[in-house]
Amino acid sequence: MKTISENACFGGTQGVYSHQSSSCNCEMTFGLFLPEEAQNGPVPVLWYLSGLTCTHENAMTKAAAQGWAAEHGIALVFPDTSPRGDDVADDEAYDLGKGAGFYVNATQDPWKPHFQMWDYIADELPALLAENFALDMERQGITGHSMGGHGALTLAMNLPGRYRSVSAFAPITNPSASDWGRKQLTAYLGEDESGWSKHDATLLMAEKGFDGPILIDQGANDQFLDLLKPEALSEAIAKRRQQAIFRMQPGYDHSYFFVSTFMEDHVAFHADALYAG
Amino acid sequence: MKTISENACFGGTQGVYSHQSSSCNCEMTFGLFLPEEAQNGPVPVLWYLSGLTCTHENAMTKAAAQGWAAEHGIALVFPDTSPRGDDVADDEAYDLGKGAGFYVNATQDPWKPHFQMWDYIADELPALLAENFALDMERQGITGHSMGGHGALTLAMNLPGRYRSVSAFAPITNPSASDWGRKQLTAYLGEDESGWSKHDATLLMAEKGFDGPILIDQGANDQFLDLLKPEALSEAIAKRRQQAIFRMQPGYDHSYFFVSTFMEDHVAFHADALYAG
């Protein structure tokens, strides 16, 4: 593991690190905010998964999360959204290939050799973090924005017991039925849709739900509402009687101005779960 | 005036606008955060001047200021740092020309036709803002980072009565004696150093001081300490018995991780002054 940078930030440290990923077969970069409390022992962890076109850097610089994480003594992990490098397959479209890993393990060429983001986020990166930093991996929460909200929700429901709480900002909720989803799941997983369901938050909610609290914020003026389909997940949550708070926020769009506005609430929500019991 | 974008943000609106500037003879862009309170009448204004290489956008996305401004019902103005456009003179160095206006009125060619940032910030932009937005121009404060801290301090001391409070993050304090200053003041104002003194916060502090409170934060691990020279202004403040708080912050560098960390304190500091009396 290589240290790219470390900056003092809200009494703790905002670091950027890279490492050779065995899942993705390339050098991967991630951001990690450690609060001051990490100097004295392991702290709880909140994962933040980013959206289309993002790297590890977007949320780290624009989501205004570190101040609230410092207040609650929580670490923040900011992974990249896809494998990177000259020999990694890509597409001209912004929503396929680099910057658009969709948090799945690709089974199809040309994506298969590198696009194993599910394994990277679910297994490889947590193991690396646990080995190298003062993190309490028994206390993890997960959140994300847009494609990252999709990742957070699908990881949380597929890995019961792993995360105590899950939240999302304007998540892609029903990729099997959206142009943000069908194209990518076809490319990465193939045309047989039976393999898609574990990567669709709405279908997962209908099938199994989440064993903890959920918080979702969605801007009512989001320019991508037709692709995000909040109504699909919202309905599934209500049908299941899933413990959840779903907030439709009037006036807000899809930008980081929306994300940063409600970050305080999301970090506090996770802190409640991470410090309970 | 043209609206580039408006995003809901912390209950208010983060806007970006452009206009033909008569001072700079080019199209200029600025950011303006208006808190919810601006819907009911004029609100106080806090100016944020940015540093070298920045545009109107850096602080707007990375300084995490809007949340605190919303809490105090204060507007934030984010001007650009120089004139822009294909016919505007530039230099290959990052610290001269575009992105490096240094908040002066150039008297020398090739800079003179466009680089009139002092007039732009002191006169033209305030008049435009007063005409178009619900801002209480009797209640203004000013802050900035690095070159923008230099701008904030020099504007505040040269325009007594204009700003109720001034603060700065890692300001260039003594440009007459620094490589961040001598090069630019020579280029923009000419070799006669007598014209430089109104653009040197340390000299201004010795000569006249500021008729209100000052807050300055400086990171002790700032990679540019030799250029910023905090000791020069610090000494001048103490000699003058100027009302001021100067904080040397252990561990912090020159980045926006430093700026965002202490933004809450700066906005609260200005709010105290803006709502007093």
TrEMBL record, chains A, B:
<keyword id="KW-0719">Serine esterase</keyword>
<dbReference type="GO" id="GO:0018738">
    <property type="term" value="F:S-formylglutathione hydrolase activity"/>
</dbReference>
<dbReference type="InterPro" id="IPR029058">
    <property type="entry name" value="AB_hydrolase_fold"/>
</dbReference>
<comment type="function">
    <text>Serine hydrolase involved in the detoxification of formaldehyde.</text>
</comment>
<dbReference type="InterPro" id="IPR000801">
    <property type="entry name" value="Esterase-like"/>
</dbReference>
<dbReference type="Pfam" id="PF00756">
    <property type="entry name" value="Esterase"/>
</dbReference>
<keyword id="KW-0378">Hydrolase</keyword>
<dbReference type="InterPro" id="IPR014186">
    <property type="entry name" value="S-formylglutathione_hydrol"/>
</dbReference>
<comment type="similarity">
    <text>Belongs to the esterase D family.</text>
</comment>
<protein>
    <recommendedName>
        <fullName>S-formylglutathione hydrolase</fullName>
        <ecNumber>3.1.2.12</ecNumber>
    </recommendedName>
</protein>
